From TrEMBL:
Taxonomic lineage from the root: Bacteria, Bacillati, Actinomycetota, Actinomycetes, Micrococcales
Gene: hemW
Main location: cytoplasm
Claim: ATP-binding is one of the keywords in the record: no
Name of this protein: Heme chaperone HemW
Residues that span the membrane, as ranges: none
């Protein structure tokens, strides 16, 4: 069910933004639609998700109607602070969005499109568990306007999937990809490395299996042990080993080498997109929705526990689906709190997010008192010297990607 919500100021019951806020019509706008339901809770997961026994009165069959009420509220709130902007990207995340009937996802998308509009060529993504993807599901999603499926593969090795409490059958990943391709959807697959008992050979087997699927995009995330999860408790009791940092570094280097050789380019530390042969332009297969987060654009997060950012204001919804539904049934905002970060906090966030991108971070975006540390990071082999000197941008080397958190600390502490 995830960690605690951030501390912040109380959010008004009507959801109105501060009177001083005005949106910039040139800033892209995105929508995130959270579906907080899972059949089984994975041992490593710290997301705001709920199995059937944890819903305590919330109903999956009423969820689409509840979320649509928040879409109606968002339209009213955003109309008050400037002209509505059509959505550049839409992302259904979870949880497992495809646990809901595809018609419910379609209704949610149609409601958001009707409220805000959507740009021609917008990216519309649905996350999916491989076992929930059928030709009928993807056909309904395509007809609704979805054009990208993000499939939670995680691993191709059964004992690794078991260590992560993943219940899908490895062969169903290929079936899901084939169904998505037949419907004309772009395909991304997600991988996790560093699970208890996973060897470098296991990881390379998963990489090869992912590449054989010929996806457009691959995400590869190091396993992080979150407090309060089943896996954290198992490690604390000595039942399974903690992730090995050196082995995870070897796994990352292997991923980058193999993906690059297969025609993928990294564009964020944990994300690679298929590149068009011979093209000097960025890959069209990058996740535009995630780039909106990393670049600090505006988005509204719909659903329990979802976070939003509009014109420098951040807020977050109550976590439990029952509390979320109750607020909206009373025609109240589901926001639990909000904040307006000051200039120092915004600088920290900009460095934290944009330094992870292949396009890099402008040195001008670093606090003047810390710009001298760029030279030290170049000497340590963490920043590309040509980019810093020629383009005045901080771009991470491969070694820098492995030590990205250390780069951020050097540029902000």
């Amino acid at each position: 069910m995830g960690g605690p919500l951030p501390e912040g100021d109380p959010a008004p019951s009507d959801g109105r933004l501060p009177s001083t806020v005005r949106v910039d019509a040139s800033t892209p706008f995105s929508a995130y639609l959270h579906v907080p339901f899972c059949r089984v809770r994975c041992g490593y997961c710290d997301f705001n998700t709920y199995t059937a026994t944890e819903l305590r009165g919330a109903r999956q069959d009423e969820y689409a109607d509840t979320l649509i009420r928040e879409i109606d509220l968002a339209r009213r709130v955003l109309t008050d602070v400037g002209a509505l902007r059509p959505m550049d990207t839409v992302f259904f995340g979870g949880g497992t969005p495809t646990l809901l009937p595809p018609g419910d996802l379609a209704r949610m998308l149609h409601a958001a499109t009707g409220a805000f509009g959507i740009r021609e060529g917008a990216e519309v993504t649905v996350e999916a568990n491989p076992d929930t993807v059928t030709p009928e599901v993807v056909d309904t999603l395509r007809e609704a306007g979805v054009n990208r499926l993000s499939i939670g593969m995680q691993s191709a090795v059964p004992h690794v999937l078991a260590a992560l409490d993943r219940t899908h059958r490895p062969e169903n990943v290929r079936t899901a990809v084939q169904a998505a391709r037949a419907a004309g959807l772009a395909v991304s697959v997600d991988l996790i490395y560093g699970a208890p008992g996973e060897t470098l050979a296991d990881w390379e087997r998963s990489l090869e299996a992912a590449l054989e699927l010929e996806p457009d995009h691959i995400s590869a995330y190091a396993l992080i042990i979150e407090d309060g999860t089943k896996l954290a408790r198992q490690i604390r009791r000595g039942e399974v080993p903690a992730p090995d940092d050196d082995l995870q570094a070897d796994m990352y280097e292997s991923a980058d080498r193999r993906l690059t050789d297969a025609g993928f380019s990294w564009y964020e530390v944990s994300n690679w997109a298929r590149s068009d042969a011979g093209s000097a332009t960025p890959s069209p297969h990058r996740s535009r929705h995630n780039l909106a987060y990393w670049r600090g654009y505006d988005w509204w997060g719909f659903g329990p526990g979802a976070h939003s950012h509009v014109a420098g204001v951040r807020w977050w919804n109550v976590k439990h689906p029952a509390a979320y539904a109750q607020r909206l049934a009373l025609e109240e905002s589901p926001a639990a709190g909000r904040e307006q970060p000051d200039a120092q906090a915004r600088t920290l966030e900009r460095v934290l997010l944009r330094s992870r991108l292949a396009e890099g971070l402008s040195i001008a975006d670093i606090a003047e008192s810390h710009r001298g540390r760029v030279a030290e990071l170049i000497s340590d082999g963490l920043i590309d010297p040509a980019s810093a000197l020629r383009d005045r941008r901080v771009r991470l080397t491969l070694r820098g990607r492995l030590l990205a958190d250390a780069v951020v600390r050097a540029l902000t502490d």
